[in-house]
Design a protein that fits this description.
two-stranded parallel sheet; glycosyltransferase activity; globular; 7 helices; transferase; 121 residues; signal-anchor; two-stranded antiparallel ribbon; mainly alpha
């Protein structure tokens, strides 16, 4: 989802570019930017992981440890299937919402299966 679509639904979205001036951003090295990403991610109200890599795994673990359960791992499989069907904009948004509707349980949330042995990519 493009930034405009996300911010039209969620009005309190914070990005690195909104936190830092252009000069500050240029002077920061990769590790410092990663540390900023990590700090903001583990302390935010909710977190959407767009890639299930090591950083996302650590963020999800720290958020769960701190009791911040609003963490969602986007289904790349669902996204690929829906876009290959030609869905765009609002239709894609609704279909992805439907694909993730069971990822959150009242008060808790995780897109991870209870048993990884039953998880199929």
């Amino acid at each position: 989802m493009e930034s405009e679509g996300l911010t039209s639904i969620y009005t309190n979205v914070v990005t690195k570019s909104s936190l830092l001036s252009g000069e500050d951003s240029k002077s920061m090295h990769g590790n410092t930017k990663a540390a900023l990403d990590y700090h903001v991610s583990i302390n935010s109200d909710s977190y959407i992981a767009t890639y299930f890599g090591n950083m996302d795994k650590m963020v999800a673990a720290m958020r769960a440890f701190n009791g911040l359960y609003k963490t969602l791992f986007l289904s790349r499989r669902a996204f690929a299937e829906l876009t290959s069907q030609g869905l765009r904009c609002k239709e894609l948004e609704h279909a992805l919402g439907k694909a993730h509707k069971d990822d959150f349980v009242m008060g808790r949330g995780s897109a991870l299966p209870d048993c990884f042995c039953e998880f199929k990519l």
